[in-house]
Design a protein that fits this description.
Blueprint lengths: L2 H9 L18 H30 L7
């Protein structure tokens, strides 16, 4: 362990109190990632379209003061 690691380790805190098991439950293959990306991509594109439409609609609104 390097000196910087020792210094950081001295004030580091655990992110979780959950006790982890070393047993691997499932590995995610590259083909799994590709399949998930294909599933998610249309939803991301739809969100982009909705966000753009919302910004254009908001740009046409006039907010009055007093």
């Amino acid at each position: 362990m390097s000196s910087i690691e020792k210094r950081v380790h001295s004030f580091a805190r655990k992110a979780s109190s959950v006790k982890h098991d070393r047993k691997v439950v499932r590995t995610v293959t590259r083909s799994d990632v590709v399949a998930l990306n294909k599933t998610i991509e249309p939803k991301i594109r739809q969100n982009e379209r909705e966000r753009t439409a919302s910004m254009h609609a908001a740009a046409r609104c006039i907010v009055g003061g007093k």
